Amino acid sequence: MNYEVFDSFLRVDTWHTSHPLDDKRFFLCLHNVVREPDFSAEAMGEYMRAAKRVDSDDHPYAQRINSLVGKAWAVHEYLEATHPL
Questions:
Q1: Which end of the chain is more exposed for a tag (fewer CB within 10 A), N or C?
Q2: What is the pLDDT along the chain (85 residues), one digit of tens a residue?
Q3: Do 3 and 44 meet the contact criterion of CB atoms below 8 Å apart?
Q4: Run of H or E residues at 23
Q5: How far is Cα 5 from Cα 26, in angstroms, rounded to an integer?
Q6: Residue 29 · residue 5 · CB < 8 Å
Q7: pTM higher than 0.85, yes or no?
Q8: Is 59 within 8 Å of 22 (Cβ atoms)?
Q9: How far apart are CA 21 and CA 41, in angstroms?
Q10: Neighbours of 2 (CB within 10 A)
């Protein structure tokens, strides 16, 4: 699975905020991969942690990435329930 689709999102200086425009950018990237059979929100989070060098739960970006993982799981589960692959 190629999570590089999130690189454009992660390059925006405000990606780590909960601003609606940042969430929109995240969801637009997620749209490109969430229906892939091998998509994993946990792997997406690991990719983001590596890209941003987040090496502990104490890192300032850790909470935001965990939140994005939760959002990705929610979208994935919703799509599976309403439109099975």
A1: C
A2: 999 999 999 999 999 998 999 999 999 999 999 999 999 999 999 999 999 999 999 999 999 999 999 999 999 999 999 987 6
A3: yes
A4: helix 20-31
A5: 10
A6: yes
A7: yes
A8: no
A9: 21
A10: 10
Residue 9: alpha-carbon gap to chain centroid: 9
Mean model confidence pLDDT for the chain: 95
> Residue 62 is which amino acid?
A
What tokens appear for 70 in the block?
Answer: 């939760």
- Amino acid at residue number 83: H
Written as six digits, the tokens of 39 are 């998509």
Q: What pLDDT digit, counting tens, does each position of 9-25 carry?
A: 999 999 999 899 999 99
Q: Whole-angstrom Cα distance, residue 47 to residue 53?
A: 10
Written as one letter, the residue type at 2 is N
- Count of residues for the chain? 85
Longest dimension (CA), the chain: 37
